[in-house]
Structures are given as C-alpha cells and as structure tokens.
# Entry
Amino acid sequence: MAYWLVKSEPFTYSWDQLVKDKQTFWDGVRNYAARNNLKAMKKGDEVLFYHSNEGLEIVGIAKVAKEHYPDPTADDDTWVVVDIKPYKKLQQPVSLAQIKSDKRLADMALVRLGRLSVQPVTEKEWQIIMEMAAQ
# Structure
C-alpha cells in the first residue's frame, strides 16, 4: 500500500463534505506531477486529506476507492481522476506549522513542494503524522 496527500480548500470541498457525500471523484487536477501521482494511486491506498488556504491542516484519512480514469470535467484525456471515500477523521488535526516544526518531516512534499495538490507520502512520514494526530 502507498500513502498520499490531497489538498482542498475547505470552502471549495471540505472533509465534512466528503463524509456527507460518502465518495467523490478527485477532479480539477491540472498539474502534470499531481496527475502522475493520481495515476500511481491504487485501490485501497490511504490518503491524507489536507485543508489548504483556510485551516492549513490535515484533518482526515480517505481511501482510494477507484483507480484513475478520465476526468469528466476536462476537455481532453490528458487529465484523470480517482475516486476517494472517507476512512476516518483524525483525532487531532495536524497543522502545517506542526509539520514544518518537526525536523523529521523536513523532506515531506508538503514542506518542499507546497503548491502540489496531490503528493506522495512516505511510510515514515505517515507514521509521524499518525503519531502527531494521536491515531
């Protein structure tokens, strides 16, 4: 299993909305690196759900429910989506400030590649985040 992080502005699509919807396709990705990360996701992979711009924190864990397929919101087949479903809300959200202050996470994509909307997370980074979230 691999681990990932997706970013969403809570006023656009929040964790609570994902919980309410029970499943959604992750659309609108128009960055090649992020698209390639979507293509690498496998069913069952776990995904950190990060509230960007407002909140700046990881709030929940989703799972990949369906592997990549063409983005229905795109005009061409360059872009893809995956389906994700909520798995569990973090007991304690993990803020960007907490992540940046932990030297063990200095190489995390969230710290190094702040604008990338879909990112890989290493197993070590995942374990540290789970520890911070009291999971």
The chain is about 25% helix and 35% strand.
